[in-house]
Amino acid sequence: MAGLIETADGGFSPTSSYVETAGELLKSLSPGKSVQEGEASEHACTSPHDVYRPNTRLKPRSVPVPLLQSGDRGGEGLRAEGSRMLIDARTRKGPFFHLSLKAGAWCFTHYNNMYHPRCVIPREEGGMDAEYEQLCKRVAVINVAVERQVQVKGPDAERFVDMCITRKAAAIKVGSAKYVILCNTAGGIINDPVLLRLSEDEFWFSIADSGAGLWLQGVNATGAYEVTIREIDVAPLSIAGKYALHTMRTLIGPQVDEIPYFGLMETSIAGCSVVVTRTGFSAEKNFEVFLRDAHRNADRLYAAVMEAGAPHGIREIAIPHHSRIEGGMLSYGQDMDIEVNPFEVGLGWQVNMSKDNFIGKAALMRIKEEGVTHRLAGLRVGGKRVDWYPADLYHVICPRSGDLVGYVTSMWYSPAQECNIALAFLPIDLAEIGTELKVALPEVYATAPGVTESATVVPVPFKKVEAAEYRTGMQAGNGCKLSSDVKK
Question: 92-319: which CATH number, 3.30.1360.120, 2.40.10.120, 3.60.15.10, 3.10.310.10?
Answer without folding.
Answer: 3.30.1360.120
